[in-house]
Design brief:
Distance between the termini: 9 Å
Bound molecules: zinc ion
Shape: rod-shaped
Largest sheet: 3 strands, mixed
Number of domains: 2
Number of helices: 4
CATH architecture of the largest domain: Orthogonal Bundle
Strand content: under 5%
Helix content: over 70%
Strand order of the largest sheet: 2-1-3
Oligomer: single chain
């Protein structure tokens, strides 16, 4: 294989690797977002647990207030019991007291339930806080790993781009222009001849065309169908020995 082609083949290999690296870098924000999404679900769990906890606490305060108000009411009723004139009025007072006491008993039952649930709610909130802390640690580690990976990819990219630019300076201008145009258009600019066809588009090549290719090593042969630069895989590619 002649040197002009060997250089282009090597440039193409580098461009393809650069494309992979760019795709890798482009995927980093999505990866970081996925890592951070884990954190947000743990944060939501904690917020829910804390909301349940404070909801229960405020219900408990409300029930306490109700009980207190009912007790005051009973005291007030009893303080007025000397004012009643008739038995009927007196019975009405007793009924009112009995009713208030029944309400207090109901509230006290609810209070017991709330206190029983409070322990479970407290430990759920504690667990959610611990889970969030663990998740934060994992996210930190994963973010650091993503950053390290990104930095490595960027370093490889920079080195590779430099090597490619050095090779481009060595490449034949006309061949390089065609290479760039086809690479942009087709994703690959070079295609090997494979079983008498262009391996890029699978169109068969004329026997005379193939014969010319074999004989004229220094000419640029282009697939008439897809425009890719054609080469024969006769010998290994080695730019350094050219
Ligand atoms: Zn072709």
């Amino acid at each position: 294989m002649q040197r002009k082609l060997a250089i282009l083949l090597e440039i193409q290999g580098m461009e393809l690797r650069l494309r992979e690296l760019d795709a890798d870098l482009a995927a980093v924000p999505k990866r970081v977002a996925a890592i951070e999404a884990k954190l947000s679900s743990a944060q939501q769990n904690l917020a829910r647990a804390q909301a349940a906890q404070s909801g229960s606490q405020s219900e408990r305060r409300g029930v306490d207030r109700e009980i207190e108000a009912l007790r005051e009411k009973i005291t007030k009723i009893r303080s007025h019991s000397g004012d009643v004139k008739t038995n009927q009025e007196y019975r009405a007072l007793l009924d009112e007291v009995a009713f208030a006491e029944a309400q207090i008993a109901k509230h006290e039952e609810r209070l017991l339930e709330i206190m029983e649930q409070a322990d479970a709610l407290d430990s759920a909130a504690k667990e959610a806080a611990a889970a969030l802390e663990r998740q934060r640690g994992e996210v930190r580690a994963e973010s650091e790993a993503a950053q390290t990976h990104s930095a490595a990819v960027q370093a490889e990219r920079a080195t590779l781009a430099q090597s490619r630019d050095r090779l481009r300076a060595d490449a034949d201008d006309t061949w390089l222009r065609r290479f760039d145009r086809v690479f942009r258009m087709r994703g690959q600019a070079l295609a090997a001849v494979d079983r008498e066809a262009c391996s890029g588009c699978r169109v068969r090549l004329r026997p005379q065309f193939l014969q010319e290719m074999a004989q004229q090593d220094d000419r640029l042969f282009v697939c008439e169908s897809c425009g890719r630069i054609l080469y024969l895989e006769t010998s290994g590619v080695d730019v350094s020995s050219c």
